[in-house]
Amino acid sequence: MIQKTSWQKSAKIYHKSLGVKGDYFHQSVINPRTQLLLNLKSGDSLLDLACGQGVLARSLPLGAKYLGVDIAESLIELANKMNKNPRAEFLVRDITKPLFIKEKFSHAVIMLALQNLKFPKEAIKNASDYLLPKGKLVIVVNHPCFRIPRQSSWGIDEQNKIEYRRINRYLSPLEVPIKMEPSKGEQGEITWTYHFSLSDLSKMLSENGFRIEKIEEWVSEKESQGRASRMENRARSEFPMFLAISAIKSYY
After folding, report:
1. What region holds the Methyltransferase type domain (predicted)?
2. Which of 11, 42, 127, 129 is deepest in the core (most CB within 10 A)?
């Protein structure tokens, strides 16, 4: 049985923020760079774990064989409604439990979803279980060193005219509620996000038979205008928003 998820109720809010092609960061940074890391070729197949409403699927070449799975039935309904790829399929599955899928894939991706899982190691295990030998897994997360919910923030050093990133906690695992509609206060929908360190992530991959091939850190490409623009742009270029890892399944 598929367990309930906070994302089921938040599907409309989430879809409104992303749209068909994704928000600014999906279109300018996340989707194109994820595709470069995946490097899909003719004959390859992709398993998208926690695919949401299918934002990555719609940016892939139409001929790519694709399976997207997500625990939220409402998000899968949206994905199917917008799907135009005859070789793409979407299923309701809890990616921290056995998926009961017969086929195996050359590639897998977990894009901005691992941080929403209380048990991320189980999702990585599923990626390993459903990848072919030497298959590639790409993981994209909000940068765990610099983007820690409620424990990281911007600050300004007026004397040195720099904007800096303040980090209050890092190594400790965290479970943090996120308000999807802040303007509604206590009446708004809530989802949960989880923080884990880079060493935690490395350990999860290693324990499930993955060898890290490449690590990339992606910054925002936005540019500020006005009096503080130089300071803000420099800070934005120094502290990446996203961390991406490609890892190869190294056994069986």
Report:
1. 47-139
2. 127
